[in-house]
Design a protein that fits this description.
globular; alpha+beta; 70 residues; 3 helices
Length: 70
């Protein structure tokens, strides 16, 4: 049986913002400081983020004090 890996979907900025709740300025600030995954270039004027990179970042976040990790 052949093992075919599942594709890693590419998310556009708006979807990344929806998932992270980060405003665009904070998103790019975190990227510039190495605190958020850098986007991949899709074209001359287009970038996106791998879903696995965004999910990994979300998984690494600590829940708020007294909060519950989802």
């Amino acid at each position: 049986m052949n093992s075919i890996s599942q594709p890693d979907p590419i998310l556009k900025r708006q979807r990344v913002q929806e998932l992270t709740s980060l405003p665009v300025s904070t998103l790019y600030f975190y990227i510039s400081k190495g605190k958020f995954p850098a986007p991949v270039r899709l074209g001359e004027r287009s970038v996106g983020w791998r879903l696995s990179d965004v999910q990994g970042w979300l998984d690494s976040r600590q829940p708020a004090r007294g909060g519950v990790a989802l």
